[in-house]
Specification:
The complex is a heterotrimer of chains A (325), B (320) and C (499). Chain A has 325 residues and is mainly alpha-helical. Chain A has 13 helices and two strands; from the N terminus they run ααααααββααααααα. Chain A has a single domain, classed as Orthogonal Bundle (ABC transporter involved in vitamin B12 uptake, BtuC). In chain A, helix 11 crosses helix 12 and helix 12 packs across helix 13. Chain B has 320 residues and is mainly α. Helix content of chain B is 73%, strand content 1%. In chain B, strand 1 and strand 2 form a beta hairpin. The longest helix of chain B is centred in the first third of the chain and has 28 residues. Chain C is of the alpha/beta class and 499 residues long. Chain C is 33% helix and 25% strand. Chain C has a six-stranded mixed beta sheet with strand order 6-7-8-3-9-10, with helices on both faces. The chains are: A mainly alpha (325), B mainly alpha (320), C alpha/beta (499). Chains in contact: A-B, A-C, B-C. At the A-B interface, helix 5, helix 9, helix 11 and helix 13 of A face helix 6, helix 13 and helix 15 of B.
Chain lengths: 325, 320, 499
């Protein structure tokens, strides 16, 4: 028996990661075919900068997906972050950092709320976070009076917009790309650099067995929702930076972030997936949007292509698993 | 019907109904809006239920087979846009337009059902996908699909019989019919079987795929009816009609509030309609109290959570 | 007499495995034909071929003399074959009537056959329930019935279809002795009515008691088919495992048990009006009782899955915090549940991750996943010590046999070095050879100075493994029996007769 033991670890996850990665490089190759200067570091960095919010959102969302749930409130958290930042800072650069700290506190509170509702009130996450999406959007609208109000100072917007120029090797380095790398590294570490990720997978796979083996199921779930919300606040700060204030800054992002994880190979309802599913899935999705723009397709058709890719990606996985068994 | 048999579902519906009525009556009395108790006031209250009620009746069918439909919002928008475009104000086109719309809804239901039942695709993803595809095509093609419904068609939304709006009669008529389908027909029995224990149903010789497909077709058709009703109300459908009404997520919410399990196999139409009634009476009460639209949305969000928590919290099992 | 069922030279191959190799099998009307074999011997594949879930690569099936091609469970049902699986296929939220008629509803005349004839269904349901001896109402919701009653509903389902061939796959696995006896009586009655019964079980005494003929399968091949008189238990066992199993149960320990490791003093909880017991190091304590005796509640209480309402508990010299699995584990108790799929395993994770589950739960969430006790080598060593057989330990645990899964769960707990291990139905659905290995492991871990509690409905198992047996009745401990007690003594106490 011992001779068969040294084979590689979890094969399924490896295949899943490869799917998202391959899709991304495939799509980016097509982009380069149409617009060769996307090979230049500058344009690639710009691509990363614009993809950053979605990648960060998906990397937070994957925590919740692994534990078997959904977070439909992340889009509303983005909207709320942008609105609250504009109203609280109101153009005063001195207030930026304290307001950002406050935003993260609010994000943590929202995640905590979602987590508590799911873990202790036993409301399915799809309903709980839908409720949060509604009340949070309503709150943002009520607070701003339904229109973009307030102002974001330069030092806040620089978080999303600023680029270092004349950086060796890559030319320009956008602050957002740096934030992206740092946040993803942190979220990678949270999931795979410590035991939390394995706990999350166990909870998503079989919460009852996890509980009886001593895993603190409620705490694991709540942590996932908090992290997802904090990631959404980060995405909101970046989006506020390069798009400015808007009352629908985050609309649609909740479904995009879930779609990204699924395209990357994570299993809905839990039990399978890695941070790479989120990262490659989100980059693939964003590459797809970029490609559609370059091809001059109407903005509206973005939705359609996204839907098609989603069905194809999941359909292909379903077909492959069925053929294997 | 034996009481014992419908007890669990009946009690959720009854409790919701009672709570809704208390909220409505207390608010009306407190704000002195006695006119709410006139026939007009009551029918107004019931008319608030129509659009969401139609979608939710359909949604109940898919949730009972342990599936879900996120594409209903896009189907609503699609039928509304198609109806306005095809009628173009011409009463002679009403029948063809309605047929076209229902055909469209049927087609979407077939695609959803096929993807879920035979493609093995997670229903959330499959219907999110078809919804996105439709939404994109609608938004992109809207410029070519202008028009408004025939004036006679608006009768559907504003006309009434003995003071009761057609639309309300239609909702309750269809609700009753679908409750009958669920509880008294072979199809209903199989829907509960497939949702309650798919493997057991398969071993009992039930063609589970076809049952799931049928549920999806029913759901899409009801979304199509809701789209037609909304088109009649607003005269000219837009591609954002369904999405702005959040009919996809709200129909799921009221179904779950009404006691139908997301895991399938338990629930019913009575509970769902009671859930819709709760939403309608809350809406009416907020209006009487003069609560602004944004705050209304905030309260709605919390109420969804609380309403589901009230019966979910007793469950011993885990939810995710 | 013509056989009701004849399977000739059935072969079925899966990628890399020859699951069935030209197996022939037949069953006469009014006969109980038992199939024995270890897990993986081909029993369930053979039954899936019969049930229309698998198509055989070669061979033919004759029902009542004519050749049948069964490609879907529906066709098997139409051919008069009913299979009662281990995993019950009931609808938990629906009534007994609706369950009995699932897929075969009675309809009223006209209405295109769409309208249910509910009165007729209820009437037939009453009659069927009477025939299987179930004292339940057709309107009862299935989730509220006991497992034994649910099983009877399954059999009523089969009778509804006038099944001429009834396959029972481990029907008594989840039943206690009294319910199992009732079921065996029912099987005898059906035999008298001319039904051909195929009986699959790991419980040898039952096979000996009920079967007219016995067939043994091993590694996908037919070993032999013999009439009851020639199929003694030792003959069956040696044919199943290919050798004699002399030391099926480990010998009693040579030394006396050590100090007390677990003590409950008048602990009360839902369904348990007051439990006092003590367990010593090196001791295996059996807990017997009928299904509703409270032995399941006692297991849940000890596992921290049931809130106590009073009394005191001590574990390894410290007060034991009941009511929370995590704190119970921290205090030093490991729980191996009866339902491994639902309560023990995370099926989509690897064997290694399942073995690390309790360690991961008890070490801080930020502990590095690949270092120290979590290192691959450390985890694999633990699994190897338990002799868990897998292609590799990175494989999903869902693909392993029940015995190997159980061994992996034992490895999970031993990694924490608990003072007490609590086994519930430790060998349910596990084949003979793996059973012996698990019994030996239980003895070994006890000899290392741990206390072991075994809650089981399998009386020969309890008698064979336990140093002492507590018998429960109505939520209390009715009596205590020393090693070597007889089944009769246990049954008497189980039924509430004082010792």
């Amino acid at each position: 028996m011992s001779e068969t033991l040294n084979t590689p670890r979890v094969e399924a996850a490896r295949i899943a990661v490869n799917a998202g990665l391959v899709l991304f490089f495939g799509l980016y190759a097509v982009i380069v075919l149409i617009q060769p200067n996307y090979l230049e570091p500058g344009l690639f960095m710009n691509f990363l900068r614009r993809a950053a919010p979605l990648v960060i959102l998906a990397s937070g969302q994957i925590y919740v997906i692994l534990t078997g749930g959904f977070d439909l409130s992340v889009g509303a958290v983005v909207t709320f972050t942008v609105t609250a930042a504009a109203l609280l800072i109101n153009g005063d650069p001195g207030a930026t950092w304290s307001v950002i700290a406050l935003l993260y506190l609010m994000g943590a509170a929202i995640g905590l709320f979602n987590g508590l509702v799911v873990a202790y009130l036993k409301v399915p996450s799809i309903i709980a976070t839908l409720g949060t999406m509604l009340w949070l959007n309503g709150l943002a609208l009520a607070w701003s009076g339904g229109a973009a109000r307030g102002d974001l100072p330069e030092n806040f917007r620089d978080l999303g917009r600023f680029q270092w120029r004349d950086v060796p090797l890559i030319g320009t380095l956008p602050m957002a790309a740096l934030v992206l790398v740092v946040v993803c590294a942190l979220l990678w570490w949270g999931l795979h650099g410590m035991g939390y990720g394995k706990r999350a997978l166990a909870v998503g796979d079989n919460p009852r067995a996890a509980e009886l083996a001593g895993i603190p199921v409620a705490r694991t779930r709540i942590t996932a929702f908090v992290i997802s919300s904090l990631a959404a606040v980060t995405a909101g700060i970046l989006l506020g930076g390069f798009s400015g204030v808007s009352v629908n800054a985050g609309s649609g992002l909740e479904l995009q972030s879930i779609a990204a994880c699924v395209i990357g190979g994570a299993m809905l309802l839990g039990g399978r997936g890695t941070i790479w599913c989120a990262i490659w899935g989100a980059l693939s999705l964003f590459a797809l949007f970029t490609l559609l723009n370059l091809m001059g397709l109407p903005q509206a058709l973005r939705d359609s292509i996204q839907g098609l890719i989603l069905i194809l990606a999941v359909g292909l996985t379903a077909w492959r698993t069925r053929r294997r068994s | 019907m034996k009481m014992g048999k419908i007890r669990p579902q009946f009690s959720v519906a009854a409790v919701l109904l009672l709570i809704s009525l208390v909220i409505f009556v207390v608010t009306a009395v407190a704000t002195g809006e006695m006119a709410q108790f006139s026939l007009q006031g009551i029918t107004g209250l019931l008319q608030r239920m129509v659009a969401l009620g139609l979608v939710a009746v359909g949604q109940t069918f898919v949730i009972l087979v342990a599936s879900i439909d996120l594409s209903v919002a896009a189907v609503i928008s699609g039928t509304a846009v198609l109806a306005s475009w095809m009628m173009g104000g011409d009463p002679a086109m009403i029948v063809p337009a309605v047929l076209l719309c229902l055909g469209f809804a049927l087609a979407v239901g077939l695609v959803n059902g096929a993807l879920v039942a035979f493609g093995g695709i997670n229903p959330l993803i499959a219907t999110l996908g078809t919804g996105l595809i439709l939404q994109g095509v609608l938004s992109a093609g809207y410029g070519l699909l202008g028009g408004s419904v025939a004036p006679a068609f608006q009768h559907l939304a504003y006309g009434s019989l003995f003071g009761i709006p057609w639309s309300v009669l239609a909702l309750f008529g269809l609700g009753l019919a679908m409750a009958f389908v669920l509880n008294r027909t072979v199809l209903g029995a199989r829907i509960f079987a497939v949702g309650g224990n798919p493997e057991g149903a398969r071993l009992a010789g039930i063609r589970t795929g076809w049952v799931i497909l049928t549920a999806h077709v029913i759901c899409s058709l009801f979304a199509g009816l809701a789209g037609l009703y909304l088109a009649a109300r607003v005269q000219a459908g837009t591609p954002w009609l369904g999405r702005d009404g959040i009919y996809d997520l709200e129909s799921i919410a009221v179904t779950v509030i009404g006691g139908t399990l997301l895991a399938g196999g338990k629930g019913g139409i009575a509970g769902t309609l009671a859930g819709v009634f709760l939403f309608a009476s809350l809406d009416a009460s907020f209006n009487m109290l003069g609560i602004d639209a944004f705050l209304k949305q905030v309260l709605r969000g919390f109420i969804i959570i609380v309403a589901v928590a009230v019966h979910a919290i007793r469950g011993r099992g885990h939810v995710a | 007499m013509n056989p009701a069922l004849e399977m000739r030279e059935i072969s079925k191959e899966f990628p890399g495995v020859r699951a069935l190799d030209a197996v022939s099998f037949d069953c006469l009307p009014g006969e109980v034909h038992a199939i024995c074999g270890e897990n993986g011997a081909g029993k369930s594949t053979l039954m899936k071929v019969l049930g229309g879930s698998y198509r055989p690569d070669a061979g033919e099936i004759r029902i009542g003399g004519s050749v049948m091609r069964l490609t879907h469970p529906r066709e098997a049902a139409q051919a008069g074959i009913a299979i009662i699986h281990q995993e019950l296929s009931l609808l938990p939220h629906r009534s007994v009537t609706e369950n009995i008629f699932m897929g075969h509803e009675l309809v009223r005349k006209g209405f295109a056959g769409m309208l249910l004839d509910r009165a007729a269904m209820r009437g037939r349901a009453v009659a069927l329930l009477q025939r299987v001896g179930a004292r339940i109402s057709p309107d009862d919701i299935v989730a509220e019935l006991s497992i034994a009653e649910q099983q009877l509903v399954e059999i009523a389902k089969a009778l509804l279809l006038d099944a001429r061939i009834l396959v029972l796959d481990e029907p008594t696995a989840a039943l206690d002795d009294r319910d199992a006896r009732h079921l065996l009586d029912l099987i005898r009655a059906l035999r008298g009515q001319g039904v051909a019964l195929v009986y699959i079980s790991h419980r040898m005494p039952e096979v000996a008691a009920i079967a007219d003929r016995v067939t043994v399968l091993k590694d996908g091949r037919l070993v032999w088919t013999r009439p009851q008189a020639e199929a003694t238990i030792p003959a069956i066992v040696s044919a199943m495992v290919g050798r004699d199993l002399k030391d099926f149960y480990p010998a009693a320990p040579a030394s006396a048990p050590g100090e007390t490791v677990l003590q409950l003093q008048d602990v009360r909880a839902a369904g348990l009006p007051g439990i006092s017991l003590s367990l010593r190091r090196g001791e295996i304590l059996g807990v017997a009782g009928l299904e509703d005796s409270g032995k399941g509640q006692l297991a849940r209480l000890l596992a921290g899955d049931l809130r106590p309402e009073g009394g005191t508990a001590r574990l390894a010299g410290e007060p034991m915090p009941l009511g929370n699995p995590r704190r119970v584990i921290a205090a030093g108790l490991g729980y191996l549940p009866a339902d491994r799929k639902r309560e023990g395993l995370t099926l989509r994770q690897s064997v290694r991750d399942n073995a690390a589950l309790a360690l991961r739960a008890m070490r801080p969430a930020w502990a590095r996943p690949g270092a120290g006790v979590f290192a691959k080598e450390a985890l694999d060593a633990g699994l190897s010590r338990m002799d868990v057989r897998a292609a590799h330990y990175g494989q999903d645990i869902g693909a392993l046999s029940g015995g190997n899964q159980q061994k992996a769960i034992i490895a999970r707990w031993l990694a924490l070095d608990p003072a007490v291990l609590l086994f519930v139905e430790p060998t349910r659905g596990i084949d003979i050879a793996a059973k012996a290995a698990i019994y030996q492991t239980m003895r070994d871990t006890a000899d290392q100075g741990r206390g072991i509690i075994v809650v089981s409905s399998d009386l020969p198992e309890l008698i064979g493994i336990s140093d002492r047996i507590l018998v429960m009745h109505r939520g209390t401990i009715q009596g205590e029996l020393p090693r070597g007690a007889s089944e009769q003594e246990i049954m008497r106490l189980s039924l509430g007769v004082a010792a």
